[in-house]
Design goal:
This protein is of the alpha/beta class and 253 residues long. The protein is built from 8 helices and 9 strands.
């Protein structure tokens, strides 16, 4: 039985490392599927290699990380525009894995539209696999903030109770240092890393279950971070998700 992570971008797994390490210790079979593609083939190879190196470092077989988004047209920032091809690629990859124990994904939190679409597609996949449970991992979101400000690693109350993963001081230090595996993304992590660990220092690290009904709700009241930063209206993402859902329901019928 496998635990399957549906992630948008290479390096998203960094925000789930305590959970991944816990499951390595438990001897679970963990698989990682990455949805977004990139215009630059060399950057794609570099970032994928960084992700596989980190996973190998923590005890996950590198071959268990697959870039299912390559060639789907679901480029970084536009997954919501290519849900059919992205979901088809995910479904095919999951079918190859075999029996699924549970899923994990980036949280439904309004931080990045690709992250939210991974949550939506994971909920669909879980339903197709007997209602397998789904864990969601918070990366960043922006309720109550304006402009480029955001909360890093801060689970939304709307997503339900948080299951904490306890860490020793040494484990915290190790996790903080493992950001070194992403040299190509230094600029991104210079902003996200301090915000994440500021919140972790106060609240600890944890994850939440993903209730399928949440996918039908706005992630939180007020403007979403991706609306402010990426100028993508929630209405456009919602319309794409609903069109995809209706199409999938018609196929199943």
């Amino acid at each position: 039985m496998a635990v399957v992570y549906i992630l948008a971008h290479f390096d998203d797994e960094y925000c789930a490392l305590p959970l991944i390490k816990q499951r390595v210790r438990q001897g679970l079979d963990q698989r990682f599927l990455y949805v977004a593609d990139y215009h630059d083939a060399e950057l794609t190879r570099t970032r994928f290699a960084e992700t596989r190196a980190l996973l190998a470092h923590v005890g996950v077989e590198p071959a268990h990380a697959l870039h299912v988004g390559v060639g789907t047209g679901a480029l970084d920032g536009s997954v919501y525009r290519h849900l059919d091809t992205a979901f088809a690629a995910l479904s095919a990859a999951v079918a190859e894995i075999g029996p699924i124990e549970r899923f994990a994904c980036t949280a439904w939190e309004g931080g990045h539209m690709d992250h939210d679409m991974c949550a939506m597609m994971t909920s669909r996949l879980a339903g197709a696999h007997g209602g397998a449970p789904v864990d969601q991992i918070s990366l960043y979101n922006g309720p109550g903030l304006a402009g480029p400000l955001f909360h890093g690693g801060s689970p939304l109350p709307e997503n339900g109770p948080v299951t904490k993963v306890p860490l020793t001081a040494a484990e915290w230090s190790t996790w903080m240092a493992e950001v070194r595996f992403f040299p190509s993304q230094t600029k991104t992590w210079l902003g996200l890393w301090p915000a994440m660990f500021w919140n972790y220092a106060r609240r600890g690290f944890g994850y939440q279950g993903l209730d399928p009904s949440r996918i039908g709700e706005r992630p939180h009241a007020g403007s979403l971070f991706y609306e402010r930063m990426f100028k993508v209206p929630y209405a456009d993402v919602r319309a794409a998700a609903e069109a995809f859902g209706q199409q999938r329901d018609q196929v199943r019928a």
